[in-house]
Amino acid sequence: MADPTRPLPNLRDLDTQAFWQATKDKRLTYQQCADCGTVVFYPRRHCTGCFGSNLAWKESAGKGTVYTYSIVRQSYHPFFRSMAPYAVAWIDLDEGPRLVSNVVGVEDPASVRIGMRVKVRWEEHEALCVPLFEPA
Predict the structure, then answer these.
(1) Among 6, 17, 54, 107, which is least packed by CB within 10 angstroms?
(2) 46 is in which domain, residue-wise?
(3) CA-to-CA distance for 102 and 86, rounded, in angstroms?
(4) Does the structure show a pLDDT above 90 at 39?
(5) HSE toward the beta carbon, residue 96, CA cutoff 13 A
């Protein structure tokens, strides 16, 4: 039996396609409204501030802070089951977006803390890279 694989996003989704294409080059991107300045993440077709469609892609340096987190101790998905326990966190990127990812590169997920500085670490796949975060 083959090892279970990480579930990956649909690369044909028009709203998120540009985001995932950028990850192939290890670029962490987000959108910002050119009309009102609202930072938008997750990628979509409209601004969440003014509902306009004049969104520009920006690139993050990939550094941020743990806003909050949870430790997953049991998972029913075959890929994640072997990883438990692991930390899932809301990460506030320095540029403003907030996104959900795993905090990796820690010996014990209980060492993750609110306010912890983190930086992006890429998990490579054939068509894209998954942004994970590790202590900075």
Answers:
(1) 107
(2) 17-135
(3) 7
(4) yes
(5) 11
